[in-house]
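Exercise 7. Given the components listed, write out the predicted structure of the assembled complex. Treat all entries as one system.
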Amino acid sequence: MSVTSERSADGQQLTITISGRFDFSTHQDFRGAYEKETQAKRIVVDLKDTSYLDSSALGMLLLLRDHAGGDKSDVQLTNCNNDVRKILEISNFSKLFNIAKPA
Amino acid sequence: MSNNPVDYNVLSTLREVMETEYPLLVEVFMDDSVTRINEMVQLLDNPSFSTSSAASLENLGLMAHSFKGSTGNMGATHLSELCLQLEEQGRGIVATDEARIRLLVSQIEAEFTAVRDIFERELQLCHAGH
Amino acid sequence: MLPSTPDRLTVLIADDNVSDRMLLSAIVSRQGHDVLTASNGAEAVSLFERRRPQLVLMDAMMPVMDGFEAARQIKALAGDALVPIIFLTSLTEGEDLARCLDAGGDDFVAKPYNQLVLAAKINAMNRLRVLQETVLHQRDLITRHHKYLLNEQRVAKALFDQIAHSGCLSSTNIRYLQSPYALFNGDLLLAAWSPSGNMHLLLGDFTGHGLPAAVGAMPLAEVFYGMTAKGYGLRETLREMNAKLKRILPVDMFCCAALLSLNFKQQLVEVWNGGLPDGYLLHGDGRPHTPLISSNVPLGVLSAGSFDDNTQVYPFGPGDRVFLLSDGVVDSTGQDGELFGARRLQNVLVSNRNPALLIEEVQWALARFNGQARDDVSMVEVAFTEPDLLGPPSVIYTDSGDCSPLDWSASFEYRAVTLKRFNPLPYLLQLLQEVHGLRSQSGELYIVLSELYSNALEHGVLGLDSALKRDAEGFGLYYQQRGERLDTLEDGFIRIDFNIVPAGDGGRLTVRVQDSGAGFDSDRVLAMPPATNQLSGRGLSLVRQLSDRCQWSDDGRTASVEFAWEGLA
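Answer.
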């Protein structure tokens, strides 16, 4: 499981990429990826290599959203596979995050 | 009789390890050896000794084994080798041969005499302050 | 110069040969250790028992008791701790050397003794000894902590059970499966009666494990039981529970939940599902089951302004059951990592013949699928039952009864904006319960008030036609219209008057409910036969049944009912 992050050229967007299982062991790294970020207006979480999301992962996404401004935040979840999509669907997280349509 | 009954390298290591207790070690070893050899001789002299008696052979084997150990530690290499051969007889590792057994015991007695001479000289040297 | 060892050990030397013993003692002492000596196996064992050395150098062949037996006994005495035994041997045969290790020896050293080799082996064995010591120490620490944790959980559970005891999970129409560890997996199951005879049920799944998950359950249960007992509906209760959890839980904790309000008298069930897998409405007439889909964000995530308390309403009559489950069921993984999934569950639902066995059949299917029972599998099944067969428990009061108001009247007018979001009934019922004589009829009072209020709101102010509620499709349409019209309501009112007067030793309550609607022909509705298959019209007969006197004004816009009571003993 690994977390990498990248800022866009104009500093407006922070992309965090998760690969492997997104679960409790990711906690520290995920937080570290966005904690010091102050400039980006939008955050994109790329889940293309993510095999699995558990409820603590959902919690971590909520922490990210809170950090990014809560109701005023702009957080996108992209490249979700079917399993991940299904989990997000049951919790209706599309009401909180912008979930990109499948390509 | 061998050319060199006691290995002097071993002796010098013993002197180094034992320090002031070296003479005591030598004395203890010699007294213990005399006792052991007497035991072996008495066992053979006993009328009930027979190579068909498993108990007496085992006994002899154990005695030889033990003496092999202490003589080896003291650097009396040839003596230790003789004990090994006697042990093999006693434990049946080689074919038991009563004549061979008796020969080995007398060879052990003889070799020990040479070894004892060397150790007595060692003691004299120690008491003289070397 | 020999390398010095970091630890000063007590080393037991067992050798039957006096000069060997001396030599070995000297070698080991020079390495910085303390030495104990024994000349045979029995002495070695006895010395070990008394002085408990950390390491043993054991001659194999010794009289009285040989090294092998002594080694066995010493290892037994040492128990869990590692006391390394290094055999001293001039045995050379492989079989003999193997025998040393089989007897419990950890290594062997050949005669004649090489002090460097001996020193190295003692150090190596000591490292292992220290490692074992560390492992045992940590094991003991963990065991102690574990005991504390278990105790804390016991206390938490006892606290929780105090809160949970007021529920009605033991009701005969409820079947459920919950692991004894459910609370500490965050799984929660609550059921309670409302004063009007509805049953509220909650199945919840908090994120996390252990105490953090369990602790969230307590405030939630308090809200659920408190509001249900006061007569609040599902939606108000949901709003309050969400607000409470949002306030007290950390941002990354939330509670997936499904809530039901079962109305046995009106034969309908109201459902809200936020984050649990699909529940199912199982029909008694052979129709395929209706999935109860999660269409909401779990509790404790959204602020009050964004929280969606909208519920789905379905007909729910004889033979029907509602089945809810936690994600432990569908997320169970099989041998190859595949999920049990909703499809397999639905197969069990479809092939079930004996309703009493449904939960067992799901369990069997799970066991066949993965063989390993998870302890976070929770399931509950509620069946329809005739209202007379069940009953809410009697309400317990704590005041003394001396200050009961006996001669008063009060009027309330609720206008459009208030009607949209506010349910006045719990407050009004609380008010009436100040009158002690009315308390024994509080169930009937609540039912009648609810009936009159909902008629006034739905038929009067909103102008809905209850004839729509003839079938399942019409049902859906009716509630959709209700929602739409309520959202866009701009004018209208409902007036409620209470008048309490003494009568003999007791007293009499007169309730008037008036709405701003078009009115209706009450005589015609009351004259209709109480058809059991009709979903509308039953309300008025119920009102007539439960109150002492009731009548409607000529235009049908005002209903008036009476409740009387005798003097209290």
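Discussion: The interface with chain C takes residues 10, 13-14, 17-19, 21, 24-25, 28-29, 32, 62, 65-66, 68-70, 72-75, 80 of chain B (CB under 8 Å). The CA atoms of residues 9 and 75 of chain B lie 8 Å apart.
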